């Protein structure tokens, strides 16, 4: 079995390297935004979408033009890669999987990628990595990288720079030690409720830190921009953000590790996190309802990282020889897991479920998880009540980018 695995480490740059990293990321952002602008103009003029190849053919010209000749300082490959990213964003948009691509802002997930293994070198013995035009950069070597190197991505998060190297290696297909199947219902009050009655309570790292963050940000707003105190305060805010992100990553990795170890097959609802967390305010023509309540719910969903939870469960189960099954979300919270009766009235309160038909009562989240488990059984029994493309989609989508738990903990 081929295992794709990514390893992420923190870079230990000197001042000159740091400047160049920022410059390269800025060049990639510029190219991405320029191409996006071009696509928009093109569309307004009623012309067809410009594909990746004709767009990439414009790059050499941009690198020579007077206004953007500084692009020459950056390597060509990462610039091409950002055009590939834009192309993928458009393909996702055309297929209805994502919204219209947006312009990138400075500091908003800056990153760039070298797609070929011959473009970089990893010297694990001396804790350093070689990148074109940047030279050798030291890094915090926290674990051994196994397998053949495939590509490398450099990224910034909360003021720190990281590289993530993707590898591939042959491993023996593993057999999951357990044979159990469990359904999981995702929620706000209970992060994940299992059909066997076990509950995972949420770690609302953001909620805990929220007040503190608001205070620090108010203090930042009061300071004179670009003054020394302003810079210090900005660092403080960035550190707080980093701590929240680390706490969440740690929580998700621990939960998905436990669940994927204990159960061979995990069934989960196909919640469209992207849809659910979409801005509640709507558009001018179609204003949203319940804007305030929904934006609170959105923040809670994003805060808990459901999408990331599902991604981790997928690849961890795959590695352990198990399987993640995604079932469509339909009435799982209103349906009785005992007799199948569906009614709004079954849900008496947030926490309690009481069937109006057969009198079965249970915790509402556990009942929903049992319905999800039943739907998962239907999938395993081939087809059932489940759209096949859904299953395929998940199996393909799961192992794209993997950050193993240890690597994240090592950075934290
Ligand atoms: Zn019932």
From TrEMBL:
InterPro entries named among the record's database cross-references: Cas12f1-like_TNB, RNA-guided_DNA_endo/Transpos, Transposase, Transposase_put_HTH
Q: Which residues form the Probable transposase IS891/IS1136/IS1341 domain?
A: 170-279
**Biological process according to GO:** DNA recombination; transposition
Gene Ontology MF term list: DNA binding; metal ion binding
The chain positions of domain Cas12f1-like TNB read 306-372
Family annotation (NCBIfam families): guided_TnpB
Q: What is this protein called?
A: Transposase
Task: Give the lineage.
Answer: Bacteria, Pseudomonadati, Pseudomonadota, Gammaproteobacteria, Chromatiales
